[in-house]
Structures are given as C-alpha cells and as structure tokens.
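mind reviewing both lines:
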Amino acid sequence: MKEINVTGQKRTDLGKKASKTLRKEGLVPCNLYGLAEQDGKPAAMAFAVPMTELRKIIYTPHIYVINLVIDGESRTAILKEIQFHPVHVDFLEVNDQKPITIGIPVKLTGLAQGVRDGGRMNLSIRKIEVKAPYQQIPEHLDIDVTALQIGKSIKVGQLNFEGLEIVTGKEVIVCSIKMTRAALSAAAQAQA
C-alpha cells in the first residue's frame, strides 16, 4: 500500500459552529478513531487538516496508509469515511497486531475469451472488502479473466488471495461477459 503524510492540528472547539468556522478558513474537521478507549468504546481525537493536504487522498482510486502528524505527534491511520456535505473526514488508527477491514480496488488482467468472441466485459464491483494486517494489504487485487467465456461470471467465492480474508459475500459477482448483438448475429451466421 502507498504511504502519504498529512499534517494537522488538534482542535478544542467542537460542534457545528466551530466546524463551520474551520471550513471557512480552508480547514477540514477530522476525527481519528484510535486504539485508546473511553468507556469501552474507541476514543476519538478531533483535529483539523488543510483541504489542500486531503485532496491527495480523497480524489484518487488508490488506498493509502496515512502518516498523520498532529501537533508533532505521529500516528498511522487509514481513511475510514468521507462526508462531503458538510465536509468531514474520519480516520482509523492502525497497528501491526490488529487486522483492519478495507475495500481494495479490483484490477482485471488478461483479455477474456468471451471478449475475443464478441462479448462485452461487465465489471460489477470496483472494490472487494478484505480483512488483514495493514502491512499485508496490496494496492489492488489482480483477477485473471483470460478463460472467461460469454455468459459466464466470476464470483467473490471463487477468488483466493494469500494472507487476506475476503469479507465481501461469496455470491457477489465481480465481473461477467455479456452477449452483444454483434456476437449474437455472428453465432447465428455460423450456424446457418
């Protein structure tokens, strides 16, 4: 997984009015849900980050391990959730021992036999949820579609990646090859 550095500062004023003021100054209110616990639940640290620093991790298909530096204190985290109206970002602190669940982008490799025969590739999901320690999580999941025929599909249950536990349901279709009119007419002409 790629790494990126983001610098922020703790915020003491919480609430709608304080967050609105931060946004006017070009800062984005953020929370870091971490390893520290308060009353048996993960405690959140409130901080603010300039929007210019967040653009690098929000507007990209890649997943990152984020080195957060908040008032000089360094933490390792991943992006948990983004809310756009109003803008707010939640991060999840990670460590070596505790596995995390994250969606990893799917990358189809090879030219499917069904596409060569005139079918059309249909990618049904863009990310697959997996669970693993953050160091073992790849940038993308490569799925070989070379042998895929027209009318056939690849389901999540057919996939296996070393060191990763797949969380997405086994019956979810990752990709399939649909019949096109051109392939249908070519098949009809071949039979005639």
Observations:
- The CA atoms of residues 58 and 170 lie 29 Å apart.
- The longest helix spans residues 181-191.
